Fold this sequence. Notes:
about 450 residues; alpha/beta; Rossmann fold; six-stranded mixed β-sheet; 18 helices; 19 strands; about 30% helix; globular
Amino acid sequence: MLRTEQQAAATGRGIIDLVRAAGVVGAGGAGFPTHVKLAAKADLVIANGAECEPLLRVDQTIMQHQADRVIKGLQAAMQAVGTTRGVIATKKHYHDAVDALETAIRGKEGLSLYLMDSYYPAGDEKSLIHDVTGEVVRSAKLPADYGCVVCNVGTLVNVADALEGKPVTDKLVTVCGDVPQPATLMAPLGTSMRAMIAATGFTGDENTHTVIEGGPLMGHVRADWDMPITKTTGGLVVLPKDHHLIAQITMTVERQVKIAMAVCCQCNMCTIMCPRNHLGLQVEPHKAMRAIANGDSKLLGNVNSVLACCSCNLCTHYACNFGLTPGTVMTNIKNELARAGVRPVTEQEITLDTSLETKRIPISRLIARMGLSAYNRPALYNPAPVTPQSVTLPLKQHLGAPAQPVVRPGERVSKGQIIARMAQDALGADIHASMDGTVDAVTDSAIRING
Length: 451
Ligand code: SF4
Ligand code: SF4
């Protein structure tokens, strides 16, 4: 049983304990456990409502319809990290969300809005911190080293729920693309992607269409539509199999290397347009392309030229005129270096691009360039949850180690009941049942519940 808000309100430590007990993780990205993030000391908490991936509407919907919950979660996060300053950063043109947030912060000390233009990737943590504070978070440093903690607005709603003893059991997801009625839907964690897509009136399947989990730029193609949505799923983008974006995302590494060898002219546009390069972090994707084309890792340059990449894929989907994939190449090399234990080094000096503002890529141009204009439609909010017959809850929906099951097949469980728990000192988050039902299966990777 979780403790109540009143019991915990007195201390930041109490808030952190409630957030941990509720299994809250970053809802907008890699799933970093929120109780760990809130254990830092900071001067400022930034609520990230920039939502820069094209076609997705989750954060806009949350800010418009749950502004008071966002603010409640933000104030709790501020208390936990020991500050009285909070900023909600979002796009100027999300008019309904901005109106709701302005009403929600009225009369509340220490809170303000930061309104941004519509560019990609405005939601990148380092870009956002630079926009709001003027600071550049150097490689191998954390936002907290600059007095900042950044939380997605959806995460903050989960923090507000945690204060009231409600664990994370549901997720808001935009289902869009080549579907009859794009929608932003609430669903129990563990609902299959197939059920989510069917809820938009789509009647096709994997033979004609491909689904990207996440946004069109940073998401991952999922071959199996029976895979579940998790705490970090923000979007399901359904595209015809022959859409050029799918061909680009699913290109094999061998083919990427072959094309790089044959076509990359080292024009440098990928580096010129790289947002992490604009911040002065020396990211240079053209060098990675040169290195793989020549099979010579020395051509990579210093490790930060790869490790400071945020995998935004702007270089692949916008900068390169030849259909090459420098973003994927960078991500692959970055992952290999990380597995080998190579760590970034902190830059002593950085040279911020003084014309950075003029180099930002408007989302509308990005959408057109990616061939997504026809799919850029409203995704209607439906607060009535999708009701699946069963859910499959992965034991690892977060950064860190998997949670350990604490239920057995045949056991009855109630929504909100803990079903997998983290070891006390391990990085990760507990998992809770997302529906009432009977545990059908417990494997090394997931727990299945039938309703
Ligand atoms: S990957 Fe594309 S943009 Fe980058 S250097 Fe090669 S051709 Fe130019
Ligand atoms: S994916 Fe490309 S554009 Fe984005 S940060 Fe990495 S190198 Fe730069």
